[in-house]
Structure formats: structure tokens, C-alpha cells
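Example record

The entry below shows one chain as it appears in the dataset: sequence first, then C-alpha cells.
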Amino acid sequence: MVAGPSIVLLSCIMQLFKLKTRLSKFDHFADFAREFKLSEHDLVITNEFLYDPFMKSLNLPCHFIMQEKFGLGEPSDKMMNTILKEVKGVGFDRVIAVGGGTVIDISKLFVLKGVEDVTEAFERKIPIVKEKQLVILPTTCGTGSEVTNISIAEITSKHTKMGLADDAIVADDAVLVPELLKGLPFKFYACSAIDALVHATESYVSPKSNPYTRLYCRAAIEIIIDVFQGIAANGPEYRFERLGDMLMASNYAGIAFGNTGVGAVHALSYPLGGSYHVPHGESNYQFFTEVFKLYNAKNPSGDIARLNDLLCVQLGVNENPYPVLDELLGKLIPKNKLRVYGMKPEEIQGFTSSVLQTQQRLLANNYVSLSEEEIREIYKVLY
């Protein structure tokens, strides 16, 4: 008997969704501190403007680090390394991050084993191994990084930002406390909220998106645009009525892009932010709709068609939602030309090259691929 040809069945398994972080919500920071039993074994990284109203009176026995004492603005390798030296010899089992993107990005590196220079971690020159527990309380409504495996920092020697994406830096717990947003100035609120909208829209059209992630994207987009419309109609004070909603929307967007990644908006913003210290959300805002207009022009019939339909419904238009979206966002905070931040025309090619050389991790998540010329043209148009 002659055996017939063997048949090999290959299965292709694609992970659709994961969420490793436990989610909790408290009305007050004091409730969180009591429930999580904060102790001398905790390292709390925060800011004085949060410590004074929410933590000082509790007389907690934790070790506290006030981030702003080590530098202002976005996180950098120098800032992180200086804090590392400060806490060397301090015994702690858990890192509690209470703050915005800077505090959170810093805190994620402090749970790793054997880090003496964070640049080595970002460049993966050392093993990325988790050694401490991590609890994150976000105090802006934009980063979503309380539920992601990503930390971003300016690498000063390279004049750009780099990201470390690894499950070792995923928070064990993310805790939402709306009262922590009350002191956030409106400009920071607006920039961080726009950043959450960017997260949701980039995730929606990512090649890694799927029905599960799009559920979170849709929920985030609906809430964020509704709140923005309320602010446009009633003024900045309206945001205080919706702090819990916006914190939840940011979390939804974080859950989505934690599974799908973000793309060209973030990639193009990093050289600007790294060179001229433009806050992350504000930098993303400058590139947001220009990138999506190009996506739409190159392939209008894919996932972006469904995103456009969603935006049209939310914005009350029949087609092409981006001019109306630009108008709405402009009522929150003006959009600037890149030269306002100090960018020079001769940097257009340098920024383009930097994106292509250092941001392939993000460009892989683009809705459609963008050529060097197309990236350069976006910088030219926005300059």
C-alpha cells in the first residue's frame, strides 16, 4: 500500500485582546490609601501640587519622590537617572505613581531589576525583568498609560523620544480617582484629552485593531467628543462636571491602544517634542488631523471609512469630518504652526529621517504605509 501525500495543517493564532491590569475606582485618594494599605514599603512618585492637597494630611509612612525637583517638562533619561540615584538604597516593594504622563513613564522604569542607566533599558541593552509591584493613579485624562506596557522618554543624546514597550512595565493595578484631576489647568486638560482622542482614533485604524479594541475606541471617542462639545458650548468650567467620564474615556483609549499600538501621529510628534520640549499631547495635536487626512486620501474604503462614519455622527456632519473636528479642537486650544515652537525649515528633512530611523515600532501600526516624501510633506504643510 502506497501512502498518500501527507497534509500539514498550520494554524495561525492572532492574539485579539489582553488586559493584565486590575482596575479600581475611588471617590477620594484617602479611600485608595486605606484600601491599598500604603506603608513604609511603598515608593510614591508624585508632584507637590498633588501631595499637598491629597496626601500630606494623611501622614503616610511611604517614601515620597516629588518629580518636579528633578526637572520640569517631559520625562528624559537624565531626569530618570537622577531619581534612580536618589532612591538607591531605599527599601521598597511597590511603586505608586500618582501623576500625569511624566510621573507614570518614570515610575514604570523603577519596577525593573538592575537598572542603573535607563537608556540601557530603552535601547534594550539589559534584560527587562520586573522586580517590584506597580500601582498607577493617573491625574490627567489623556495618557491612558496606566493600562499600557509602554514608557516614553526623551533620550537627550539622540534629540528624540524613545519608547520601551514590554509587559514587565505593565501596572498591577490602575486606580481611577476623579478628584485628582480638579487642579489640572485647562490647557493641560485640553492637551491630554486630545491625546486620548488621538489614542482612540489611531487604535481604531491600526492593522492590529479588531472588534474588541474598536469597542473601547468607539466608547472613548463618543465620550470625548461629547465632552468637547459641552466645553465649546458652555466654557472650560464644564469639564468639572465630566471629570469621571473623561478619566474613563482616557482609560478606554489606553486599553485599546495597549493592544493595537499607535502610529504616525505619535511617530511624527516625537522629534518635535524631543527637540523643543513640546508637551506630548500638544505635540500630537499638531499632527493629528493632517495624518488622518492623508490616510483617508490613500485608502478611503478601509477601517477609516467606519471611523469617519462614527466621527460624522458625533460631529453632526454628513461627510469629511476633519474640518469640523479641527474647528471643535480649535475652540479648546489653538493649533500652532511648527515654527512657533522653534522648528527651523532645514530641520524638516532631519525630523523625517529621525522618524524613519527611530520610530519603526510606531510606523508599523500605521493605517497605510507612508513614504519618506509623504512624511516630509506633512512637516512642510504644518511648518
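Notes for this example: The longest helix spans residues 211-234. The chain has a mean pLDDT of 94.
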